[in-house]
Amino acid sequence: MGFVSFEFIFRLIGAVVGTIGGGMFGSWLATYVGAPPEASVVVFGLIGFLAGLILTPFLTTRPLRFVARRLSSMSPDRLTAVIAGLFMGLVAAALFTLPLSLLPTPFGQIAPLIAAIVFCYLSIVILTARREDLQAFITNFRALNPGAKTAPPVAKKEETFILLDTSVIIDGRIADISRTGFLRDTLLVPNFILFELQHIADSADPLRRNRGRRGLEILADLQNEAIIRTEIRDIDVSEAREADTKLVALARHLRCPIMTNDYNLNRVAEIQGVSVLNVNDLANAVKAVFLPGETLTVKIIQQGRETDQGVGYLEDGTMVVVENGSHLIDTNARVTVTKVLQTTAGRMIFAKT
């Protein structure tokens, strides 16, 4: 039975409880003010019915759905820390229940409940912050316990991911790379990256809107045509708000790299110890290597900065600056490489006719 049917049942239960409670309140109010009870019971009964029908999901199924969604998106070590913290908090609260219940009324009834909430909250926060130490403690305890029977190790390949940034999806070259089969890890797109693409696609600026739509089309191609698997998951990071910060935090939780073309995200991720796969670096690495003295054919399409220079481009986008090539514009020229310069924007070749 899904959340929808559960919500419907809880609405009906809430409506019945609200009707009974409203009728009882209306009867008491009529007796208190000396009014006819029938009209008051009917009016407040209807109010209780509507209130129970509308508000019940916000007190029952909606919080449960939110908690279930958050728990399903948690990493295993974080979930272990939350469960352990909740258990420790309840144990600590149970130890204080008896002395707190001896307090005078009404503190004796309220203090144990407040203590349970406070201890559970503090235990969860502390163990979540120190979850790596908790994981190490559990591992060491298993290793030091000679009586524990451990099953023989089973060779199981753990699924690994590559997080995709908005910029690399819009760039589009990731689709071509994925078809080559060089990547083996699952491409993971968190929901907040998808929402950012949708926000860009709905922009009033035509250029941003076209970029966002292109990103959504590339993402659809990755899911339908790529050799490797591409997943879109409902994952969020509560301790971050911006998409880039969430992506870096998620990469640290999953211990996986980020694929991006964003220079600032690249630097921030490297500072925080997250591996980065930059498509521009890959493109520069696989470009054809030309050494001084080699010859190549290039079409000169424009004049260079100097009056006698001509500029052409190879098929991979490498710029070729040809000395004494300004008179060869719009022609294919056979040139000799004189120097190769590697810049942050890419590789540049200088040649002469």
Structural commentary:
It is a single chain. A 5-stranded parallel β-sheet has the order 3-2-1-4-5, with helices on both faces. A 5-stranded mixed barrel has the order 6-7-8-10-9. The chain folds into 4 domains: 3-64, no CATH class; 76-137, no CATH class; 161-284, 5'-nuclease (Rossmann fold, 3-Layer(aba) Sandwich); 287-352, Nucleic acid-binding proteins (OB fold (Dihydrolipoamide Acetyltransferase, E2P), Beta Barrel). By secondary structure, it is α/β, with parallel strands linked by helices. Residues 149-156 have low confidence and may be disordered. Helices cover 58% and strands 16% of the residues. It is built from 13 helices and 10 strands. It is elongated and about 105 Å long.
Strand pairing plus helix content: what structural class? alpha/beta
Side by side, the strands of the main sheet go: 3-2-1-4-5
Contiguous uncertain segments of 5+ residues: 149-156
CATH architecture term of the largest domain: 3-Layer(aba) Sandwich
- Succession of helices and strands: HHHHHHEHHEHHEHEHEHEEEEE
Question: How many domains in all?
Answer: 4
Average pLDDT number:
80
Helical residues, percent: 55-70%
- Number of H- or I-type helical stretches: 13
Please give the CATH class of the largest domain: Alpha Beta
Number of extended strands:
10
Examine the coordinates and then state which fold CATH places here, giving the name of the CATH topology of the largest domain.
Answer: Rossmann fold
* CATH superfamily membership of the largest domain: 5'-nuclease
Reported for the largest beta sheet, the result is: 5 strands, parallel
Give the N-terminus to C-terminus distance in angstroms. 77 Å
Q: Strand percentage, roughly?
A: 15-25%
| CA radius of gyration | 33 Å
| Approximate shape | elongated
